[in-house]
Amino acid sequence: MKRIFSFLLIVLLVIPALGTTTFASNTVKAKVTESSTYFNGEKKALNGFNISNNNYFRLRDVAEYFSGTASQFEVTWNKTNNAIEIITGQAYTPEKKASSNYYSRSRTYSATLSTSKVLVNGQLQSITAYNIDENNYVQLRDLAGKIPFDIEYDVQSDRISLFSKVPDHAYRVKTAVETESNAVSSYFPRWKSTVSSYLVKNNDGTVSVLEAKKEVTIESYNEKFELTGNKSIPLELPIFGGFYSGENYNYIAFGQENREENDSKEVIRIVRYDKSFDSVSIKGGESYTVSPFDAGSGSMAEAGDTLVFHTSRTRYTTEDKLNHQSQLTIIVNTKTMTVTNDLGRFQKNHVSHSFDQYVLFDGATHVLVDHGDAYPRSIVLNKGDGTSYNEVDLFNIPGKIGANATGVSIGGFEMSSANYIVAMNTIDHSLVKDYTSYEMVGLEKDQRDIVLSVLPKASLSSSSVNHITLAKYVGTTKIASIPQLVKITDDKLMVLWQEFDMENHPGDLKYVLINGEGAATGSIQTIKNFTLSECSPMVSGDKIVWYANNKGSRVFYSIPLN
């Protein structure tokens, strides 16, 4: 069980190679520490010593591992004043020649009390330090409140965990299960995969984190983001296909492969979670499915007693001896838990290949969005009822039919009172000489602008689509992630994305408010040390909320709307 670092074990820091004054009479014995040390969830090798049952570590190591975080600090040696000077908020400058001393756990070393002063932002601090081989070692717990950073100690594993401070409106929380990173990246896949982390707003004002791994785990948090409970649900079939929190029920889709093309084999099961755990089963023969959810993300929406699951599949072998991938749209009567539409090889809203899928209800009619690379090769919208659809190309993609590399990615689909709005990113297609299934030939760097495709509800035609560029990144020194889109009201939405440098290191979070026409209503805002994830942000009370798992810890982030 983890707990906040107590006075039973005082962790101290090492301040290396900074020049010291010592007293021989104050020499004590030091042994290499046995404790393992983690920075923001990652195990790091540090020079550490145990002195009088307390642990000490090199300050420069800590400065290096916190560099680039909200707890970064610079360390310098002021020989004139015999002082170690720490400046918080500044990036750490590594030593020109790093210390290469090797310390054996079988040996005992001499540690001498140091008289060097320690200044933090110019202010003298009362911190005890020891010197070993001309390196100063200083109390970590004293520094933690001054840098600042957080410390946790796990007695059972003898593990010291250091966490950079969280910014305003962010909350590092406890988890009931081990986390896996779900942070966004600057890598743009050719096709999406099933979303496996969700944030659910409960009726009592609490939120739940639902994640799918070897099982589906649900962890609940109160309004202060304190962990209040957890449970798990076994996978009913081996493949997780998606989750949806409806008005009265929760739905989870499961699947399994059908490589043998057995018509009677169950390939998809959509389970309605209430006391009866109702489900609807879909066989391979009726859906022509070999691999459910393949190369797509999947999305669900409901209206009344109708649930639409818009996902993807790899189909049965065709005359050309291939298993083609396409969308699969499943319409379910949730009152009877039965499928009401044709799941055949080619549905009325057929898209192949479909690399991303979204669905919303506009009244009683559902609206679908797909990322197609062949038929059609576009970001395509279909509005209909399962038997007929009005198809509109929102963004035509240059290149050869079926070339998997498209240079675009969808990040969100919402509707305002008058428009359907897709948030996406796109390369400058004029820079590409050719498109293959693996690359965009001639494109030196995959940088993409943040773009909206806006379609008026009253004019469902490609000529009516308005493309709005919210942020330019092509040709700059930054990379923008796939954007997220959050609906606040019918005519107020937010677009969010993460910046990265050209070496793919994460940078600032960016967001901008837009109106129902897709136009920005203010300037692009910047928040440092915030992390976007695959978890879709949502409105909770008077703020936008989401969470991110990153490097072994979970943080909730919020943006106040007032």
Written account of the structure:
The structure is a single chain. The protein contains 3 helices and 48 strands. The protein starts with a strand and ends with a strand. With 562 residues, the protein is mostly beta strands. The N terminus is likely disordered. Helix content is 3%, strand content 52%.
Structural class: mainly beta
Count of alpha/pi helices:
3
Mean pLDDT: 92
Largest sheet: 7 strands, antiparallel
- Weakly predicted, low-confidence segments: 1-24
Question: What's the assembly state of these chains?
Answer: single chain
Task: Report the span from N to C terminus.
Answer: 38 Å
Strand content: over 45%
Brief overview:
This protein is mainly beta and 562 residues long. It is 3% helix and 52% strand. Mean pLDDT is 92; it is low at 1-24.
Please render the helix and strand layout as text.
Blueprint: E1 3-4, E2 12-15, E3 22-32, E4 36-39, E5 42-44, E6 48-51, E7 54-57, H1 59-66, E8 73-78, E9 83-88, E10 109-114, E11 117-120, E12 123-125, E13 129-132, E14 135-139, H2 140-144, E15 149-154, E16 159-164, E17 170-173, E18 197-201, E19 207-212, E20 215-221, E21 227-234, E22 239-245, E23 250-255, E24 266-273, E25 279-283, H3 284-287, E26 289-292, E27 299-303, E28 306-317, E29 323-333, E30 338-339, E31 352-362, E32 365-375, E33 378-384, E34 389-396, E35 408-415, E36 419-426, E37 434-435, E38 440-441, E39 449-456, E40 466-471, E41 478-480, E42 484-489, E43 492-501, E44 506-515, E45 525-527, E46 538-540, E47 543-550, E48 553-560
